[in-house]
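Structure first, sequence second, as always.
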C-alpha cells in the first residue's frame, strides 16, 4: 500500500509540484516512523531491555568486587609457599596479571561483540569468569592462582564490553545519556556493595566459600543476560577510510593526547590499582583491621564516586571546567594520600580513600570529555568508538603498572611510606598536567599547532 501511494504521489508531481512535495515528505516521515524494511514489509521492533543490562552489569561487577578487599591478603597466603616472607612484588602479581589481561582482552571482546552479539559474548564471558572465580578459590598453588586470575580477567573483559556496547548500540538517540547512566549506576552500585560484603563473607565463611559465591553470581549474570539481552549479532559498522598506522598511532602522535594520558589518565588508574586495590588491604591488615573493616573502608571510594560524579560532570559541562576539574581532581587525590606516612592509622587511610574517591569523581568524566575535544580529527577519521577504545586501552595498560609500582615502593619504604610516595607522584603528575594545558590550551590555535610526538 505504501509503494502504491508513492507511485500516485509521483504521478501528481507534474500536475501540482508543491502539494506533491509535501505529500512525499509526509510519506517519508511515515516510512521512518513505522520502521518499514527496505523491501516495504513491516519490520517488528523490540525495545532493548536496558534494565536487564543494568542488572547483568551489577551481578558480574559484584562478583568481581567481592574479592577486591582481600585479594592481596589471599595472594599472600599462596606466596608464602614460595617464600617464608613473600615480597610485596610477589603479592602484587595476581592483581597485575588480572588488570593486564583485562586490558589486552578488551579489543578481542569488542571484535567478538560485533560478530556474535551481546548475548553470546556476555554468556561466553560469564562461563570464563565462573570457571576463573571457582578456580581462584580452589587454586593448588601460587602459579595456579595466576592462571585462574587470567581466566577471570578474560571473562570480565567480555562481559564488560558486551554490556557497555549493548547499552550504547540500543539506546534511543534522545536517551543516550540516561541509558548510559543505567550502565554506570549498576557498575557503581556493585563497586559500593562488593568490597564490604566480600570482606564480611571472608571473615565468616573463608576465602574459598566467598569465591564460590562469586562464581555463582557470575553464572547467574550469564543466565540473566542470555534471557534478557538481544541474541542478534550487531551489524558490521560502515567502513571508514583508514589512516596509515591505525587509530592508536594517530592518537599517540597527538601531543596533547599524550600529555593527558601521561599526566592524568594513567596516574589516575595507577592510584586506583596501586593504592586502593593493593596497598589499602595490606596496610589495614598490618594495622590489625579485619577483612570486613577493610571492605567498609574501600566502600567509601565507590560512595564518593557514585554521589559526586554526576554533580561534577554537570558542573564541568555547564561551565566548561573539564581541564580545571581534571587537574584539581588529580591534586586532591594525591594530597589525600600524603599524610598516611606521618599519621599511620586506619583513620588516615580512610581519609585517603575518601579523598581519592572525591578527586576521581571530579576528574574521570572530564577526562573523557577532553579526549573527544583533543581527538576531534581522529574521531572524524575513525569514529568515536575506536578513539575512545584506544584511550581506554592505553589507560588500562598504564594502570596495570599500579600494583607493581606500589609493591616496589612498599619493599623499600613500607606500606605507609609507599602510600605517601604514591600520593606525591599523583600531585606531581597533576601539577604537570595543569601547567602543560595552561600553557598550550585544550585545543591548538589555528596558527599554533602542537607538533606531534616523534614516533
Amino acid at each position: 500500500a505504501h509503494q502504491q501511494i508513492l507511485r500516485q504521489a509521483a504521478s501528481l508531481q507534474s500536475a501540482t509540484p508543491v502539494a506533491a512535495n509535501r505529500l512525499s515528505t509526509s510519506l517519508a516521515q511515515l516510512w521512518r516512523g513505522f520502521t518499514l524494511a527496505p523491501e516495504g514489509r513491516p519490520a517488528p521492533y523490540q525495545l532493548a531491555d536496558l534494565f536487564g543490562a543494568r542488572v547483568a552489569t551489577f551481578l558480574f561487577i559484584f562478583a568481581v568486587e567481592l574479592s577486591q578487599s582481600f585479594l592481596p591478603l589471599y595472594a599472600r597466603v599462596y606466596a608464602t609457599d614460595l617464600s617464608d616472607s613473600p615480597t610485596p612484588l610477589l603479592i602484587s602479581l595476581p592483581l597485575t596479571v588480572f588488570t593486564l589481561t583485562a586490558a589486552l582482552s578488551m579489543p578481542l571482546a569488542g571484535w567478538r561483540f560485533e560478530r556474535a552479539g551481546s548475548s553470546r559474548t556476555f554468556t561466553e564471558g560469564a562461563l570464563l569468569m565462573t570457571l576463573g572465580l571457582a578456580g581462584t578459590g580452589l587454586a593448588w598453588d601460587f602459579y595456579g592462582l595466576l592462571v585462574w586470575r587470567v581466566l577471570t580477567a578474560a571473562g570480565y573483559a567480555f562481559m564488560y564490553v558486551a554490556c557497555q556496547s549493548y547499552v550504547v548500540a540500543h539506546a534511543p538517540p534522545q536517551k543516550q545519556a540516561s541509558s548510559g547512566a543505567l550502565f554506570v549506576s549498576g557498575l557503581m552500585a556493585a563497586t559500593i556493595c562488593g568490597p564490604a560484603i566480600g570482606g564480611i563473607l571472608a571473615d565468616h565463611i573463608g576465602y574459598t566459600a566467598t569465591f564460590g559465591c562469586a562464581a555463582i553470581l557470575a553464572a547467574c549474570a550469564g543466565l540473566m543476560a542470555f534471557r534478557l539481552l538481544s541474541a542478534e549479532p550487531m551489524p558490521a559498522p560502515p567502513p571508514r577510510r583508514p589512516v596509515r598506522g591505525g587509530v592508536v598511532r594517530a592518537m599517540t602522535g597527538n601531543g596533547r593526547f599524550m600529555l593527558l594520558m601521561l599526566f592524568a589518565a594513567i596516574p589516575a588508574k595507577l592510584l586506583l590499582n596501586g593504592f586502593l586495590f593493593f596497598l589499602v588491604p595490606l596496610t589495614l591488615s598490618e594495622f590489625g583491621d579485619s577483612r570486613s573493616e577493610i571492605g567498609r573502608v574501600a566502600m567509601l571510594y565507590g560512595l564518593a564516586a557514585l554521589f559526586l560524579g554526576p554533580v561534577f560532570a554537570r558542573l564541568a559541562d555547564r561551565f566548561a571546567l573539564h581541564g580545571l576539574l581534571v587537574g584539581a581532581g588529580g591534586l586532591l587525590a594525591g594530597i589525600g594520600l600524603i599524610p598516611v606516612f606521618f599519621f599511620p592509622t586506619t583513620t588516615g587511610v580512610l581519609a585517603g580513600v575518601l579523598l581519592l574517591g572525591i578527586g576521581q569523581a571530579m576528574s574521570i568524566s572530564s577526562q573523557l570529555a577532553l579526549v573527544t575535544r583533543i581527538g576531534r580529527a581522529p574521531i572524524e577519521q575513525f569514529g568515536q568508538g575506536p578513539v575512545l577504545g584506544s584511550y581506554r586501552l592505553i589507560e588500562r595498560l598504564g594502570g596495570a603498572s599500579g600494583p607493581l609500582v606500589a609493591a616496589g615502593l612498599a619493599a623499600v619504604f613500607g606500606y605507609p611510606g609507599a602510600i605517601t610516595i604514591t600520593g606525591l607522584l599523583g600531585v606531581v603528575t597533576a601539577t604537570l598536567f595543569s601547567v602543560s594545558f595552561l600553557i598550550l590550551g585544550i585545543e591548538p590555535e589555528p596558527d599554533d599547532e602542537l607538533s606531534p610526538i616523534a614516533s
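Margin note: The domain at 50-237 is CATH 1.20.1250.20 (Growth Hormone; Chain: A;).
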